[in-house]
Design brief:
Blueprint lengths: L1 H15 L2 H27 L9 H5 L8 H11 L4 H6 L2 H6 L4 H20 L3 H10 L4 H28 L3 H20 L6 H10 L1 H9 L5 H27 L1
Helix pairs in contact: 1-7, 2-4, 4-9, 4-10, 7-9, 7-13, 9-10, 9-12, 9-13, 10-11
């Protein structure tokens, strides 16, 4: 685990000294700021029709606009994890170092999760703003952030796997975007299909996932799905790294 910790620190240091980090973080904050402002304006003008929902519940997965930027930002954040090493020519040095493939993957995955959490920390100010102008259900807010963390476990794991498999960062980003986009599209099927197919789509649904957590309901089905997919993707990443080293 000490080796994984070293990889984690190395990955975070290389990320936060690169211009990419600040371009992504700034773009992310601008997008979320505009989106939250639009929601507050909408709810202020449609207080009756909006019912029991609030700008916070709308912000945390109330529409597809919550997920569209994630389908772009996650591939950009994860494409460099391993594919960037390949392009820079440092992957061979990493592979010949006295560190296991498991430590490399776990270190890089942990770093990606730290970055995921950093993305969301500034959004806490929206809950504070709402608390200054009305009541806030902090239980629902806490559940929403827990849901976001769980969603991130498999988002980042999928991005990491694509970065391991792809020869370049651009290919890694495209593969991650397509994979997450397909999962998102399949989830939408719960609104248009019937029977068993609808149940499967509802289980995969990112929208249903966040709508449930935004209400303060922690659905264990979504937890099992998130963690299972994350473990699978991380396990495949370790296997692919071992195949590269010994192939």
């Amino acid at each position: 685990m000490r080796s994984a910790w070293v990889v984690l620190k190395r990955e975070l240091a290389s990320f936060f000294v690169s211009p990419l980090a600040y371009v992504v973080l700034t773009s992310w904050l601008v997008w979320n700021g505009v989106w939250f402002w639009m929601l507050t304006e909408f709810y202020a003008r449609n207080a009756v029709s909006s019912g029991a929902s609030t700008p916070l519940s709308g912000f945390f997965g109330g529409s597809a606009l919550f997920f569209i930027p994630l389908l772009v930002f996650v591939p950009v954040l994860t494409m460099r994890l391993v594919a960037g090493e390949k392009q820079a020519g440092t992957i061979e040095t990493l592979m010949t170092a006295p560190v296991s493939e498991t430590s490399v993957i776990l270190g890089k995955y942990a770093a990606s999760m730290v970055i995921w959490c950093v993305l969301w920390v500034p959004t806490l100010i929206y809950a504070w703003i709402m608390s200054q102008h009305g009541s806030v259900d902090w239980g629902a807010v806490t559940a929403s952030y827990f849901g976001i963390f769980c969603l991130g476990t498999y988002f980042m794991a999928v991005g990491l796997l694509m970065s391991v498999l792809a020869p370049t960062q651009i290919v890694a980003a495209v593969l991650a975007f397509v994979t997450l986009g397909v999962l998102f599209t399949v989830g939408i099927g719960e609104f248009v299909l019937d029977g068993a197919a609808r149940e499967v789509c509802a289980y995969v649904s990112m929208l249903g996932h966040m709508q449930s957590f935004a209400k303060g309901v922690i659905d264990t089905r979504y937890l099992v799905f998130d963690l299972s997919l994350a473990i699978l993707a991380v396990g495949l990443s370790i296997g692919a790294m071992k195949a590269r080293r010994h192939g």
